[in-house]
Amino acid sequence: MKIEVYKHGTLVGEATFENGQFLDDPASKEAEQIIYQVLRGNHPTPQRLIDDRGTVDLYKGLFVGLFDVIREETPWDQQSLEMYGKQIPLPRLTAWYGEDEYTYSGVTNKPTQWTPKLLEIKEVLQRVTGETFNSCLLNLYRDGQDSVSWHSDDESELGDSPVIASISLGDPRKFQLKKQNEKKSEKEQRISVLLEDGDLLVMGGELQKHWLHQIPKTKRPVGPRINLTFRNLE
C-alpha cells in the first residue's frame, strides 16, 4: 500500500507500507509525516470533549489535503426523504462504501466498491483508534445551507455501543452535541466545536444512546465540506 504524505494540500512525499512494515521512507524530509508517524505507532493524543455516558475524542489535522481527491473520485448521490407524502431532497449529497446496504431515516444506501484511497485512510484510521471498520458513509455539504439535523447513529446494525469515526475535509463547519431529552437546565452543557480540514472526531461508548449531534445550517459564507464517517456493521 502506498501512503501519500501531504502538506497544505500538496503531495510532498510517499512511502510504501506492506505486511506490517515500511519498504521505503517518504521522499521528502520536509514532508508532513502525520500519517507516516501513525503507521509507525506514534499515535497523536486526542482532546477529550465528552466523557459522560459515552466519549467524544478530537484529533486535530490528521488527514489534511485529501478534499480534492475524495470529492473527485466519489459517485455522489442526491437522495430524498419522504415527508407528508412528498419526496424532499436531503440537504447534502451522499455516498456509501461497504459490503451491505445501509438504511437510516427511511433512506436506503446501496454499497459502492472501496477505492484505494479510502482503503488507505481506513488503514490509518484503524491504527489510530484500535477499532475495525467495514463501511463508510460520505456526506458532501456544498454550502452553508446543506446540513444534518439532530440525530444519533443508533441503527441496530451498528450494535449496542458503536464507535463512529468521523473525518472532516474542506471548509470548517460547526459540529454540535446535546443530551437526548435535554432539560432547560442542561442547554448550557451543549458542546459546539469547529471541525477543520483533516480533523478526526471519534464517538464511542454509549454516546449514541444518550447524546444527539448535528451540523447546523449557517448564513456565514462557507465553501464545500466532506465528512467521512467510518463504522462497523454487524
CATH fold naming of the largest domain: Jelly Rolls
Q: How many distinct domains?
A: 2
Order of helices and strands: EEEHEEHEEEEEHEEEEEEHEE
What spatial form do the alpha-carbon principal axes imply? globular
Number of helices: 4
- Helix content estimate: 10-25%
Spatial sequence of strands, sheet with the most strands: 4-5-16-13-18-11-8
Please identify the top-level CATH class of the largest domain. Mainly Beta
Secondary structure tally: strands? 18
Query: Mind telling me the CATH superfamily name of the largest domain?
Result: Alpha-ketoglutarate-dependent dioxygenase AlkB-like
Q: What is the CA-based Rg, rounded? A: 18 Å
Strand-residue proportion: 35-45%
Summed over residues and divided by their number, the pLDDT gives a mean of: 84
Distance between the termini: 27 Å
SS-derived structural category: mainly beta
Oligomer state of the chains in this structure? single chain
Question: Strand count, sense and closure of the main sheet?
Answer: 7 strands, antiparallel
For the record, the CATH architecture of the largest domain stands as Sandwich
